[in-house]
UniProtKB/TrEMBL annotation:
Lineage: Bacteria, Pseudomonadati, Bacteroidota, Flavobacteriia, Flavobacteriales
Leader sequence segment: 1-18
Cellular location(s): Cell outer membrane
PANTHER family xref list: OUTER MEMBRANE PROTEIN TOLC (PTHR30026:SF20)
Main location, first listed in the record: membrane
The family this protein is said to belong to: Belongs to the outer membrane factor (OMF) (TC 1.B.17) family.
SUPFAM superfamilies associated with the record: Outer membrane efflux proteins (OEP) (SSF56954)
Alphabetic keyword roster: Cell outer membrane, Membrane, Signal, Transmembrane, Transmembrane beta strand, Transport
Protein name, UniProt field: TolC family protein
Length: 451
């Protein structure tokens, strides 16, 4: 028994360790965020409400049916419901009935409400999918920010390792009297500055992890981490497309555009519903009723008073009524006319909103297109700068090693290399994200090589 308990505890511990060591890929982050985001849950509930509205609209086309039963006892003057005669004794009565009604015509408003409910369910789905698109972009941006900060941290740590070697060598030269002590102080200052940059970058890594974890609704920030990988600028043919081509493709599938189009359809249906109030409404009804009384009745055949059974009375005292009702609107204080005007205005507003959304989408795509090109130039320029800084640093190091350069100029050369390599990292991930944004507008899924 103790062995089983120990094995169970060990299994639980291993499971916890495995969970803590999980490294999240971009695809896993995106899927998890979409599944657990609180706003997504709210929109999904709105979609469920839209489906219920659709069921209500279907039910409004069907006849209703209601049954009623009542029983009562009276003492003193009352009326017998079976013959409407007054009685002054204690009487027990029961009545029951079934009623059904159906709307035959109401200006086709019931049909338009059903179609509107169907359109609203579609619109809510587009709204939900558009939110998921926004979450995917936000997660991708936060994910790449972690990668950028981590890679920057590696750069600074590597530079610090080199500086430690320089510091050790400079101490030996100072002790040997080859270089002045001021050179040692300069190298120590460089090392201290790198330590500060490492601490700051470690904080940035932690903060960027927290930001991504919050998008995923994960509270265990300390154990949250993403998959380690060396991401390079992905090959992409997106710049072979013009901004107009990307915009034209985006119009065919973007959920925000489809949502705006669905809102126009909804407004048109609302207008049809409002116009339907101008027409007469025709309805039909059917009623079945029966009643019972415990009072004795005089039997003309036998000549005696007798009380009929409950079942016999229900059969003998039943009745049916049916008919139709027509309501014709004549004057209603301009409410129908004004509702139609409001609905017409809402159609125009929905059409204007669609054009505004198209304009916003085109603006965003043009901006993303320009961003890709500008960040590409910035990235390649940063690479060239870093290469030049590295060559200059190697030359400075050679001169410093033979005593032809002082520690201050050498530390400046080293600092320029650090800044240049950090700039390469920053511009690389900025460039990657802009590529992914532009591809996303073209319908390419948000994936990174290795994710």
């Amino acid at each position: 028994m103790n062995f089983k308990l120990t094995a169970l505890l060990l299994l639980c511990s291993l499971s916890a360790i495995t969970a803590q060591q999980k490294k999240w890929t971009l695809q896993e982050c995106v899927e998890y965020a979409v599944e657990h985001n609180l706003t997504v849950e709210q929109y999904e509930l709105d979609l469920q409400n839209a489906m219920i509205d659709k069921s209500d609209a279907v039910g409004a086309l069907l006849p209703d049916a209601n049954a009623s039963v009542s029983a009562s006892g009276n003492t003193g003057l009352s009326f017998d419901p079976t013959n409407n005669q007054p009685v002054t004794t204690t009487i027990f009565t029961a009545t029951g009935g079934v009623t059904s009604s159906v709307t035959l015509f109401d200006g086709l408003r019931n049909i338009h409400r059903l179609n509107r409910a169907k359109l609203n369910a579609i619109a809510q789905q587009y709204r939900l999918d558009d939110l998921k698109d926004d979450i995917r972009l936000s997660v991708a941006n936060a994910y790449l920010q972690i990668l950028s900060n981590k890679e920057t941290l590696i750069v600074f740590q590597a530079q610090y390792a080199v500086t430690e070697q320089d510091l050790k060598r400079t101490k030996e030269l100072v002790n040997a009297g080859v270089v002045p002590e001021g050179d040692l102080l300069e190298v120590e200052a460089t090392a201290a500055n790198l330590e500060q940059q490492i601490v700051n970058t470690e904080n940035q890594v932690l903060i960027s992890k927290i930001n991504l974890a919050q998008l995923l609704q994960i509270t265990d920030y300390e154990n949250f981490d993403i998959a380690e990988a060396d991401y390079e600028v992905p090959p992409s043919d997106i710049l072979n497309k013009s901004a107009k081509e990307i915009f034209a493709e985006a119009l065919t599938f973007r959920n925000d555009i489809e949502f705006s189009r669905a809102n126009i359809d909804l407004a048109v249906k609302d207008l049809a519903i409002a116009k339907g109030a101008k027409y007469p409404t025709l309805g039909a009804f059917f009623n079945y009723n029966t009643r019972y009384s415990d009072q004795a009745r005089f039997n003309n055949i036998t000549g005696v008073l007798e009380t009929q059974s409950f079942g016999d009375q229900l059969w003998m005292n039943d009745g049916i009524s049916y008919g139709a009702q027509l309501n014709i609107p004549i004057f209603n204080g301009f409410s129908v006319r004004n509702n139609i005007k409001r609905a017409q205005i809402n159609v125009q507003k929905a059409e204007v909103q669609l054009e505004q959304d198209k304009l916003d989408l085109e603006t965003n795509i043009n901006q993303a297109y320009v961003d890709v090109k500008s960040f590409a130039k910035a990235y390649y320029a940063a690479q060239k700068t870093a290469e030049a800084r590295r060559l200059a640093y190697e030359y400075s190091k050679e001169r410093y090693d033979v005593g032809l350069m002082n520690a201050f100029d050498y530390s400046q050369a080293q600092s320029r290399v650090e800044d240049a390599e950090a700039e390469v990292v920053r511009t690389k991930y900025d460039y990657i994200f802009r590529i992914k944004v532009l591809e996303f507008y073209f319908g390419v899924p948000l994936l990174l090589n290795g994710s």
